[in-house]
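Late entry, evening session. Most of the bench is empty. Finally got around to the prediction I had been postponing all week. Sequence below, unchanged from the version circulated by S.P.
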Amino acid sequence: MGLPGLLLGTLLLRPYVFVFMAAFLFCSVRLLGWRRTVLFWVVTWFTAFVCEASSIRTGIPFGWYFYTNSTIDQELFIVGVPFFDSLSFSFLLYASYCLALFYLLPARGNHEVEPVNMFRRHTWPALLFSSRIRTSWPVLKLTVLFFTFIDIIIDPVALRGERWFLGKIYYYPEPGVYYGVPVANFVGWAVVGLLALSAYFFLDRQLSPARGHRDGDHTVMTGNVLLGVGLYYGVLAFNLGVTFWIGEAQLGMTGLLIFLPLTALLILRLLGRLSPPSHVSPQSSGVPSNP
């Protein structure tokens, strides 16, 4: 099968990946603009691809694992790595980035809210898309944490792919302690997130403001950040749904318990009851706060 056929086969075999990818492009363009969206995707995909290609040959950074190549004649592989796999890192890192932004971006004033609301009775904090915070060290650290956290749900169910429509595509030579997944795998995800987002932040700072961001720290982006948060929870819900569907109730409940505190904090932030730490407050970042 030629390259066009393999690309089509990848799309038909993994449609859910491309649905999430399309959602990422839609959300990211609204928040970051086209240039930064393409930059984010290319940097993240390339970093993940290099790390995966390295790990199946050297065990670094994910630890040793191997692809079964059971679908090599049905979907696109690049030097032994399925195209869809490294592609997934881009929308997962972006969704994690938006979740971190939602917790750490300053809100305009102490009591002001964004005028647009979903249910007419509820309004969201007017989050300012601060140029000093959106590429800051706290956002980087929190994004990497959320990025690694979501793999706690994804990897164990992917490892059981023969029991759902993913298929048995990879395996660990030595099963790990967390439902068969080695701790080294989660370390690898943290490494990919740290490298990719650090590179993106560096390049982002070299670019001029995107259209619609001309006011810099005064730009309200609550709705667009929430779209990325929705993507994060959409991926989470999909994987938890599959987990329960294949009968892994204990694994599913573990995932629910892990994300329960995070979701509670998310609701508090939505209700304006949770503020970012003082070192990323409007005052410390130079963002003006209305009286």
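Two things to note before I forget:
Residues 3-285 form one domain.
The first helix runs from residue 3 to 13.
Will write this up properly tomorrow.
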